[in-house]
Structures are given as structure tokens and as C-alpha cells.
Write a structure and sequence with these properties.
The structure holds two protein chains of two kinds.
Chain A (H helix, E strand, L loop, with lengths): L3 E6 L10 H23 L7 H25 L8 H4 L6 H34 L2 H10 L8 H34 L12 H24 L9 H32 L2 H13 L1 H21 L1 H4 L2 H28 L20 H21 L16 H14 L1
Chain B lengths: L2 H10 L1 H22 L7 E6 L8 H10 L9 E9 L2 E9 L8 H5 L5 E3 L5 E3 L9 H5 L6 E3 L4 E3 L5 H4 L6 H5 L5 E5 L6 H8 L15 E4 L12 E2 L3 H9 L3
Parallel strand pairs in B: 1-9
Antiparallel strand pairs in B: 1-8, 2-3, 4-5, 6-7
The structure holds iron/sulfur cluster (SF4) (2 copies).
Protein name (chain B): Tetrathionate reductase subunit B
Organism (chain B): Desulfolithobacter dissulfuricans
GO molecular function (chain B): 4 iron, 4 sulfur cluster binding; metal ion binding
Chain lengths: ~400, ~250
């Protein structure tokens, strides 16, 4: 009816959730994925991932300590964040989040305590003075290490890990839910969102664990454990396949069968934001890693392997960005698309995120240098939770070399 | 209805206008409240787009009345240049919080700082709000913002402080053409109810299911949702940059 509309005055708000939100979503995703990886060993008893199980648990925990800091700092009234606890509102997914965010780290901490207890107990036996008491404390006051206590630790660890699985899924799933319920934003409003978030979290989490294994985990001969890396690479590939399937469902149903407002989303993703959303995020972040992980000849080019793993991590980061920030660049009432470039300093600035990463790295270094996460083997070879684990180490000593 | 009366009162001067209007429109609602409704009033507004001339007097009155920080608005008149059949014209659309019957902002607020009063007004308790901005995301009408002074969510209150004093909202009272009519939707004799009963009205983004309680007369379909067009000026965009420096 109208041939042309030029918007002269419009005050529609722009990006309210700045850099901190995608960062927070990214980190909770890493945490959930790392936790799930640790359950492969602690709950499902798959010994092939044993050497990174403790490390995964530490990643899951430290990331979740760092993530809310950034989130709280992003509130208009950070001092009031505690009020979320007693102003519960059942219809707001953000309200549930507080309870998840408080219980999930406690759960991991408790699981870590049981998983590492025997090793702390041993340390307290050999340490002296203040350190002895400290290790004793970490060993939950019980410095005894017998097959019985180890079996008990293992059992409790397994129970905590089992409870942790739905909790980890919820702690990250709810972040997707936060976006999914917002009908006013066509890009966010899909019930697939929590699932897309979870599967892309697996992509980033597995990729990060590959990177950390490459840096920190060595096999019995002191070499990078490429057989472990390859197995994780396959896991990464499967996660990417899952991610791509969900994307396919989301985009095709949205573009072909949804309301007109999703057409705008299509124009945005496949037009306006093509470089970020399609070339970088889908192409370099998902497809290239998928190809490299599934073609053995390519996978064996180790620098390429590591490079694509890093790309996968950045790809998911970019996905969080493109979804949270990108979703807000499509105006609700105004014409055209908004542009957003974060500031460098300040509450919504890039430094906020770099600082948050700094926090995580600090926690991570602290925890990994202090907690006995390394698979102990060799001279005092029976340092794991129970007999089966000891056996597995012995088996692998033969198998890996 | 009372446009002539209102214009006349503009001439008479603000003081008299306030008294007369409160005895008129708002006064009628309080009388109605006593007789007709057990539920009390349900506030609502009708904006007659045929009358709006896009002068932004409401924008200014609201900002002054409610001391809204620079670059933010509780109400604004969106202005467009529309060309149809080769002929350009102006289209103006006053926007404010719709005080929806099913407010999306209330549902998502994690602290219940945003809530709906029994008279239908959707309000923010800025002593409870944590400034998370979830309500801003959820509102389909961009009716909310984070007030850089209080660091909490802010939006139109229908000027409750004035209504409770028997006055009309500042935007309604200042409107030079009488395009904005405010009153009790529960009272069939109120000016809004009579308009709704006699003139076809529309709401913005009906498909959002929020059931707005701000109604429009003469709303062009092209403007009821996201406006497809070219953007030449965005004061809010400038406000984003100002925010840190305030
Ligand atoms: S217009 Fe927006 S802020 Fe106002 S009640 Fe409706 S959803 Fe809430
Ligand atoms: S910004 Fe305030 S009012 Fe809005 S959802 Fe958050 S806590 Fe509620």
C-alpha cells in the first residue's frame, strides 16, 4: 500500500544485553560440557577418558565460578543480585537460574572432594605442619585410604555425578530457555533454543578439553596423548553434526513455515550478517572442524587439527554473540538493522570480557596446580579411586605405548 | 467528543484546564467507580491518529513531568515520511507502554519488581529491580529502558501520581489536538469506553498476544509491527553512547 517509508524519528532501544551476556552463556556452556565429559569416567566408568576426567571437573567448576561474576557485574544494580533469591518468580527462567547457579557449583565441588579425597589423604600423610592440616581438611577429615574408603568415594562420586548430569543440562539449558521464551525477538523465540545451546556447548566444551589436553595432558611416555585427542575429535564431530541438524531444523522451519517476523531473521543471518553468521560461524566454526575431524588424513595433520579445534571454540563464541547481540540488532519496531560495536572500557566494554577470562584462567591455574587431577601412574600406580581404575591404568600402560 | 471543550480550556489556561478536566474525564471515572464497578478502574488510553499532528508536545510534557534523563523517553511520537502513489506525506505514531492485559514484561521479571496493579497499570518497583533488562527484551513495543540515574527499568506509569491526585496523564493533558484520551475501561460511560464502543480501534502487534490497553484509531497496518523502511535518525542510538558519560 505504501511504496516507501522513511523513518524520521524513532527511539526504539538497541542493545541492552551487551558483551557480558554472550560471554556468560558461553562459559556456562563450557561448564556443562566439561562436566558431562567427566561423567563419562565417573558415572559411566569409561576408562578411555580417565586422564581428563579430573581436569574436566576442574574446568566445569572454575568456569562456573567465573561466569556469574561477569553476569552480576552487568546488572544495573549488582548489589541487589542476592534479592533474586527471595523474590522468586516462577514464570521467569532467570529466576530459576539463581538456584541452578548456586546448587550446581556446590555439587561439582562436592564431587571433586570425593573424587580427589584419596589423593588428598595421601598427601596429608606425607605433608607436615600447616599443609598437613590443610590436606586433611580437603580430604574431608578422613585421611584413611583403604580399598573400602576408595570404593565408597567412588560410589558417592558416581551418585553426585549422576545428579550432576541433569543439573549441568539445566544450568546451561536454562540460558537457552531465557532467550527461547522471548516472543518479542523473532531470532530467539524458538523452543529449539535450549537444545541448540546445549549441543553447541558440547562443541565448545569438547573443543576446549581437546585444547587443554594438548597443553596439559601427557601419556605415560610423556607425550601428547593423540589417541585420546582423536577420540575427543570424533566426539567433537558428533557434536557438530548435532548442532548442524538443529540449525537445519531451526532455519528451514523458521524460513519456510513460520510467521513473517522470522523472514527478517533470515534476511539478517543470510544477508546482512552473512560474513559473521554464515562464513565464520557456520563455515569456519562448524563445517571445517567437522571435515578435519572426520577425515583421518586431515586429522593427522596435527597443526591443522589444533587450529580447527580453536576455530570450533571461536565459532561457538561467535554463535553466542550472533544470537544474543545479533538478535537485538533486529529492531522490534524500528526500520532497518542496528549496528553494535562494544566499547573498550566500562561495564559493557571488551575489557569486561577480557577481565572475566583473566579470572577464569587465574582460577584454573590455581585449581590445577593445587588439585591432584593428573592421572597418577608409574611408581605409585594405584592412586585412583578403586581397583577397577587401577586395573585400567595398568591396561592402558600396555595399550597406549 | 470533548475536543472543542479541551481546546477551549487550553485557551483558558493550564490551571483551569487541570481542574476542569479532572472534573470531566477523570472525574467521570471516579464517579463511575462508585456506582458501576466492584472491580475498580482499569486504566486505558485511546490515541486518535487522525488528530495527531506529530508536534511532540506529549514527549516533552512527559519528560518534564517525570524527569526522564536525556536521550530516554517514556513516550515518543515516531515520525515517518510515507510515499504512496508518488505522493509523500507524514505519518506520526505516538508510542508509550501499552499497560498490556497480558504483559510480557511481568512474566519474565525475575524479581517481581515489574508487576501489574489491580487498576491495570504495569509498574516497576525501582527499589527491588536489579536492572537485568529482561523486561526490556520481552516487551514487544520497546516501551522500556534502563534509567541511567536509577540503574533500574523505567517506563510509562500512566502518570499514576497524577491520576491518584485526580489529574490526567501529562501527555493527555498537554496534547494540542486532543488525540490522546485516557480513562477507565471498566466504566462504560468514560470517554475511552465510549470511543471504543463507537469507533473501530486497533492495537500494536496484536499477534504478540499481550492484549495492549492503549488503542489506536486509524492505525495503518504497515506501522502496527516492525516498520519496514529506511532509517534516517535514531536518537536512542545516540543515547547509547551518552549513557556512560551521564
Ligand atoms: S507495553 Fe511493554 S512494558 Fe508495557 S505492559 Fe506491555 S509488555 Fe510491558
Ligand atoms: S530490569 Fe528490573 S523490572 Fe526488568 S526484569 Fe529485570 S528486575 Fe525486573
Amino acid at each position: 500500500m505504501n511504496d516507501q517509508i522513511v523513518e524520521l524519528i524513532q527511539t526504539g532501544s538497541q542493545v541492552h544485553w551487551g558483551v557480558a551476556i554472550p560471554q556468560y552463556f558461553f562459559l556456562t556452556g563450557i561448564s556443562a560440557a566439561a562436566f558431562l565429559l567427566s561423567t563419562l569416567t565417573y558415572v559411566f566408568g569409561d576408562k578411555r577418558y580417565e586422564s581428563i576426567a579430573g581436569l574436566s571437573l576442574i574446568v566445569a567448576f572454575t568456569v562456573l565460578v567465573a561466569a556469574p561474576l561477569n553476569l552480576i557485574a552487568d546488572l544495573g544494580q549488582p548489589g541487589r543480585f542476592y534479592s533474586l533469591l527471595y523474590h522468586f518468580h516462577g514464570t521467569s527462567p532467570m529466576s530459576w537460574g539463581v538456584f541452578l547457579l548456586s546448587s550446581y557449583p556446590l555439587l561439582i565441588a562436592l564431587e571433586m572432594a570425593f573424587v580427589f579425597r584419596a589423593r588428598f589423604a595421601r598427601r596429608s600423610q606425607t605433608a607436615s605442619g600447616l599443609l598437613k592440616g590443610f590436606y586433611r581438611l580437603l580430604a574431608l577429615g578422613s585421611v584413611e585410604v583403604t580399598p573400602d574408603t576408595e570404593a565408597r568415594d567412588h560410589r558417592i562420586g558416581k551418585i553426585l555425578g549422576t545428579i550432576g548430569i541433569p543439573t549441568a543440562l539445566a544450568v546451561h539449558g536454562y540460558t537457552g530457555y531465557i532467550l527461547g521464551v522471548v516472543r518479542a525477538r523473532a531470532m530467539w523465540h524458538t523452543s529449539l533454543m535450549p537444545l541448540i545451546f546445549l549441543i553447541s556447548a558440547m562443541v565448545s566444551g569438547v573443543a576446549l578439553m581437546i585444547l587443554l589436553s594438548w597443553i596439559m595432558v601427557r601419556n605415560d611416555r610423556g607425550k601428547v596423548d593423540w589417541s585420546l585427542m582423536d577420540r575427543l575429535g570424533i566426539l567433537l564431530a558428533w557434536s557438530i553434526v548435532g548442532d548442524l541438524i538443529l540449525r537445519l531444523l531451526w532455519y528451514t522451519i523458521g524460513l519456510s513455515y513460520s510467521s513473517a517476523s522470522f523472514q527478517e531473521v533470515g534476511n539478517f543471518i543470510f544477508g546482512h550478517h552473512f560474513m559473521e553468521a554464515v562464513v565464520l560461524e557456520l563455515g569456519l566454526g562448524l563445517l571445517l572442524p567437522l571435515v578435519v575431524m572426520t577425515v583421518p588424513a586431515l586429522r593427522r595433520i596435527r597443526p591443522l587439527f589444533i587450529l580447527t579445534v580453536i576455530l570450533a571454540i571461536f565459532g561457538v563464541m561467535l554463535f553466542r554473540w550472533d544470537t544474543v547481540i545479533g538478535g537485538q540488532l533486529i529492531p522490534k519496531i524500528g526500520a532497518g538493522f542496528y549496528e553494535y560495536i562494544p566499547s573498550f572500557w566500562g561495564r559493557t566494554g571488551v575489557m569486561h570480557i577480557i577481565g572475566n577470562w583473566g579470572f577464569w584462567i587465574l582460577f584454573f591455574i590455581l585449581f590445577t596446580s593445587f588439585l591432584p587431577w593428573k592421572k597418577t601412574s608409574g611408581k605409585n600406580g594405584r592412586a585412583n579411586q578403586d581397583k577397577t581404575h587401577t586395573d585400567s591404568i595398568l591396561e592402558r600402560k600396555g595399550a597406549v605405548s | 467528543m470533548g475536543n472543542e471543550r479541551r481546546n477551549f480550556m487550553k485557551v483558558l489556561g493550564a490551571g483551569l484546564a487541570v481542574t476542569a478536566l479532572s472534573a470531566g474525564t477523570a472525574g467521570a471515572t471516579s464517579a463511575g467507580k462508585k456506582s458501576a464497578q466492584k472491580d475498580g478502574p482499569r486504566w486505558g488510553m485511546v490515541v486518535d491518529l487522525r488528530l495527531c499532528i506529530g508536534c511532540q508536545a506529549c514527549t516533552v510534557a512527559c519528560s518534564t513531568e517525570n524527569q526522564i534523563p536525556l536521550g530516554h523517553f517514556r513516550t515518543i511520537v515516531s515520525s515517518y515520511e510515507v510515499t504512496s502513489g508518488g505522493r509523500p506525506r507524514r505519518y506520526t505514531l505516538p508510542r508509550l507502554c501499552n499497560h498490556c492485559a497480558k504483559p510480557a514484561c511481568v512474566t519474565v521479571c525475575p524479581t517481581q519488581a515489574t508487576r501489574q496493579r489491580s487498576d491495570g497499570a504495569v509498574v516497576v518497583d525501582n527499589t527491588v529491580c536489579i536492572g537485568c533488562g529482561y523486561c526490556i527484551q520481552a516487551c514487544p513495543y520497546d516501551a522500556r529502558f534502563i534509567n541511567p540515574l536509577t540503574k533500574t527499568a523505567d517506563k510509562c506509569t500512566f502518570c499514576l501520581h497524577r491520576i491518584e491526585a485526580g489529574l490526567l496523564p501529562a501527555c493527555v493533558e498537554t496534547c494540542v489536538s486532543g488525540a490522546r484520551t485516557f480513562g477507565d475501561l471498566n466504566d462504560p460511560r468514560s470517554a475511552v469506553s465510549r470511543l471504543l464502543a463507537t469507533v473501530p480501534t486497533q492495537v500494536l502487534k496484536k499477534d504478540m498476544g499481550t492484549a495492549p490497553r492503549v488503542f489506536y484509531i486509524g492505525l495503518d497496518e504497515d506501522f502496527s509491527g516492525r516498520v519496514e523502511g529506511r532509517q534516517v535518525l535514531n536518537p536512542a542510538g545516540q543515547a547509547e553512547h551518552q549513557e556512560d558519560s551521564i
